[in-house]
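Changelog-adjacent note: as of this version, every example in the card shows the full chain rather than a window. The one below runs 228 residues end to end.
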Amino acid sequence: MLAKALAERGADVALSYNQSREEAELAAAAVRDAGRRAACIKADLAQADDCRALVAGTVKQLGRLDVLVNMASIYTSTPFDELTETQWDRGLAVDLRAAFLCASAAVPHMRTAGGGRIVNFADWLPASGRARYKGFLPYHVAKGGVIALTEALALELAEHQILVNAIAPGPILAPPGLDDDERRVVEQATPLGRWGGAGEVAKAVLFLIETDFITGEVIRVDGGRHLK
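Full-length structure tokens:
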């Protein structure tokens, strides 16, 4: 959805994937159908070298880099007593460290271009200052770190006209395996009474790419869920 929306605004798009090659190729096909160039690059974002290679590969294939969207995430439930050091490290590596590493690799290219946009993905719960669901400790901590990274990086890069913001999604798409009753519980807890859909995230990202005077901001896209 986002890749297609970017292409329709005139952007060439590079997509990274680790295990979801088929989904990445479908998104790339949508970009090409919109008349723009697309690149699919395999990367395990828990690996620092892969983060840097992803950015280098994007510039090599598409010629430049103006926008970085850090969307990769691990969202799996693990009870605290079963959480291992390896799971903790990988969760923070993908959900937080990769955003820093990809930004670090992308910024020199943005400086050369005279500016750029970085959009990170946080979560509505850390953005609201509270934990609610057990079993997601590394995820919650990492997404809280993404918010801090966004604010600090925005200050660091403002003089280079590189704007850094974050999206904090709420009930956008129902996770696989959620039954009808569980879906309805979420809908009832959301003031707008429904799931948002991927298009709402795409709209928010496009807004943050197009703005010239918003930086260091975290926008909740949650249908008002944080109000309850």
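Structural remarks: The radius of gyration is 17 Å.
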